[in-house]
Amino acid sequence: MGMTEQNDTSTAGRALVGQVIGMGDTLAVGRFRYLFATHRWEWSDEVAAMHGYPPGTVPTTAMLLSHKHPDDRDRVAEVLTSMDHGATFSSHHRIIDTAGRLRDVLVVSEHITDADGTVIGTEGYYIDVSGTAAEYRREAIDAALPTLLEARVVIEQAKGALMVAYAIDADQAFRVLRWRSQETNVKLRTIAERVVGALPTVGGADVGLRTRLDHVLLTAHEDPPADHGTG
Description:
Elements: H1 11-22, E1 29-35, E2 40-43, H2 45-50, H3 61-66, H4 70-83, E3 91-96, E4 102-113, E5 119-128, H5 134-144, H6 152-166, H7 170-184, H8 188-198, H9 206-219
Antiparallel strand pairs: 1-2, 1-5, 3-4, 4-5
Helix pairs in contact: 1-7, 6-7, 6-8, 7-8
């Protein structure tokens, strides 16, 4: 069984996904999870469709690797191997679906823990950042989000952080921020401010940086801890 009952496969969820990141393409974002003990993958219908499979298809590590672009496969294989040692699945790479179509995807995730706090797996999102023409995206963004102009500086800073960490371009970074904003019902400017505010704590390089930024990105909608200082 996939993740249909747990994620974005309801009518409302599909509509939200289309509005947030796909500009009408309901395949643009989907969920996945991986359990370390059983080496079991689960993915939503949206992620299955990104790879060209019908709903209900059960993924495996070998299947996932078979769809990676040849130039990206070894790098992603290293990431997948590290997951069995407790790492999350964080990557920006290309996949080739069953029909031979190339997709540019961003994967962000966090740990799954049991009741005792032990890490037992990882779960997160596949985001298809390929497709829609840049000028169409820009027109839609300008029409839908005019109030964001005053927040340009902090949003540009947050975009820059995502571009460096995930090796994506400016439009793709904006779509990721906008997705988190709409999915969590938190203003995009607030998401951007929290991402930028957390940057001093996520210093590092390569996978370590991406993993820490995954956590920041997926929790940026939460209220920050209260400052109990007296100064």
